[in-house]
Each structure stands twice: as structure tokens, then as C-alpha cells.
Write a structure and sequence with these properties.
alpha/beta, Rossmann fold, 2 domains, five-stranded parallel beta sheet, 9 strands, 38% helix, globular, binds phosphoric acid mono(formamide)ester
Length: 308
């Protein structure tokens, strides 16, 4: 197979096992390219891409922009805080106006789950979901699983625990889908209040005790506590959360074997993850960021019709 089975990247749920392997294989090639002295290739020359961000972002926005520029695409950036959205314009009107300027692909981050799906039904460009509410963040899951494959040789058969605020996390859902499609065993770990009610339907192990979860896994993907999405109190205090669910060196030193530590960023240092682990030899956090560019190059290239 040399083409994706989808026209848009809306979520991992819609991708096949073959799609994931094709993206990885293409990203392997692009990773080699971006480590050369001349990092740019002409693959998307004459393609125009709009990065439309209705929510804050550092990593995803920069990584998409860099990926697009490395592929020689023309890039326009839109941020809702500086736009006519503030004057009451609808999402569809905003994007249709951007498309009237002859844009071929739209990368969208939005606070509402389903916003990229809605756009894909109403406009003619390729849509790439850069995070929709608490739903999916597909390119994050692709770069996470690509990074596990790079570190451990494969994803198949590995035990991966996702720790923390599963309830509000689009990274968790996309990671669960990607890991399962690639043959990993998945566990979630966090306080009961931060686990979604439908967790039993996702085919994952559930563990409330962090030390047991860390002893079980090969890889721990630690999630940020998303205070901005929490309208009510889900735990008594940050101090208590850190006591029960903060990953630190002391906890890792008690384990029977070394494990790999991941975090999608941004990190609340000293809350869900301590610096003595985040910056240690166990952590592949900056490797994840590096791989994000190659993965996004692969996704853009393949959606634009490129094959390997
Ligand atoms: N991981 C991630 O989505 O980070 P940003 O919010 O900075 O894009």
C-alpha cells in the first residue's frame, strides 16, 4: 500500500493498521531528510496550507509550520485571538473565507470536539485535526507511537500506561486507539474522578495505584493536569495529586526494570512529572518533539497525494 485510506486526518479511529505503518515508513524517510544539512524538499511546492488555531499551542503549531516549510508548501497562519472570530463570525464562514484565497489543506485546532469533522463535510480542502476539545489529537498519538517504535524497536507487545487526567485528554484517546491498532497492551492510571465513565468500553486495563502501574509497564506516558478544562474540583489539591500520581525518581528507583517516560507537553513540572525524571536518561520527551516534525511531514505529504 502506498496511499492512505483517508482524505482527511480527523482521528486515529478512522485509520487502518496499514495507514499507521505507511505514515511511519514515510516519517522514517523524512526524519533522515531533516537531519541533513539541507533540510528542505520540494514535495509540496504549489500547495498552500492554512494553520487555523482556535486554542493555544506551542509544539503542535510550530511543528506543523516547520513540517510545511520543510516540504516547501506556502503557509498561512490564523489565530482566533487576532481575527474576526472575535466579531462573531462562524467557524464555517471563517474557513470558507480562508479557502476563497485558494488554500489546499487546513490544519485546525479547536476547543469543540468534532469541529474538524464538521469542516470536512462542508469544504473541499484536506482537513487535519490538530486537537479537537477533549476528543482526539491524532498527530500527537502518531508521534508518540513512532517514538516508542524508535526507542523499543516496535510497539507490538509492549505494555504502555497512560497516567493522569484521562477524562480531559484528547492525547489519551488518540494514544489508546493508536497503541491498540499497533498491538500494544494499554493501561490507564489516575484518580477515579479523572477516568471517563466509558473507560470500560475502550478495552484498556484500569489501575488506580501508580506504583503498581509503573511496575507493570514498559512505557509510561504522563499527561498534564488540564486545570483549564476542569470546571469542578476533581481532587482535593495539587499537592495531594502529586503525592499519589506524581512521577519522580524515587518511584522509578523502586521498579524491577527501567521504563521509558513520555509526556506530550506542556509539562507541569513538579506536579505530574518531576524534573529528576523529565530530564533523565529514561525520558524521550524531546525526542517526541523532534519526531513530531517528521510525522507531520509524512501526514501532509501522504494526504496531498504522495506515496512511497
Ligand atoms: N502536545 C501538544 O499538543 O502541545 P501544544 O498544546 O503546545 O501544541
Amino acid at each position: 500500500m502506498s496511499q492512505l485510506s483517508v482524505r482527511h486526518l480527523l482521528g486515529i479511529k478512522h485509520l487502518s493498521h496499514e495507514d499507521l505503518h505507511l505514515i511511519f515508513q514515510t516519517a522514517d524517510n523524512f526524519k533522515e531528510v531533516i537531519n541533513r544539512p539541507i533540510k528542505k524538499v520540494p514535495s509540496l511546492r504549489d500547495i498552500t496550507i492554512a494553520n487555523v488555531f482556535f486554542e493555544n499551542s506551542t509544539r503542535t503549531k510550530l511543528s506543523f509550520e516547520l513540517a510545511e516549510k520543510r516540504l516547501s508548501a506556502d503557509v498561512v497562519n490564523f489565530s482566533s485571538t487576532e481575527s474576526s472570530v472575535k466579531k462573531g463570525e462562524t467557524l464555517l464562514d471563517t474557513v470558507n473565507n480562508i479557502l476563497a484565497m485558494k488554500v489546499d489543506m487546513v490544519v485546525i485546532r479547536h476547543g469543540s470536539a468534532g469541529a474538524p469533522h464538521f469542516l470536512s463535510k462542508h469544504i473541499d480542502a484536506n482537513i487535519i485535526n490538530a486537537g479537537d476539545g477533549t476528543h482526539e489529537h491524532p498527530t500527537q498519538a502518531l508521534l508518540d507511537t513512532f517514538s516508542i517504535r524508535e526507542r523499543l524497536g516496535s510497539v507490538e507487545g509492549k505494555k504502555v500506561v497512560i497516567v493522569g487526567d484521562i477524562l480531559h485528554s484528547r492525547v489519551a484517546l488518540s494514544n489508546i486507539f493508536a497503541l491498540q491498532k499497533l498491538g500494544a497492551e494499554v493501561m490507564v492510571c489516575g484518580p477515579n474522578t479523572l477516568l471517563p465513565k466509558y473507560i470500560d468500553q475502550l478495552g484498556v486495563h484500569v489501575e488506580l495505584d501508580l506504583d503498581k502501574a509503573l511496575a507493570w509497564c514498559d512505557v509510561a506516558n504522563i499527561l498534564r493536569i488540564q486545570l483549564e478544562r476542569q470546571q469542578i474540583k476533581y481532587f482535593p489539591s495539587l499537592r495531594e495529586y502529586t503525592l499519589y500520581y506524581g512521577v519522580n525518581r524515587e518511584r522509578l528507583d523502586l521498579l524491577p526494570k527501567p521504563i521509558t517516560i513520555m509526556h506530550p507537553g506542556p509539562i507541569n513540572r513538579g506536579v505530574e512529572l518531576h524534573s529528576d525524571v523529565a530530564d533523565s536518561e529514561h525520558s524521550i520527551i524531546l525526542g517526541q518533539v523532534e519526531n513530531g516534525v517528521a510525522i507531520r511531514m509524512a501526514v501532509l505529504y501522504l494526504l496531498a497525494g504522495g506515496g512511497v
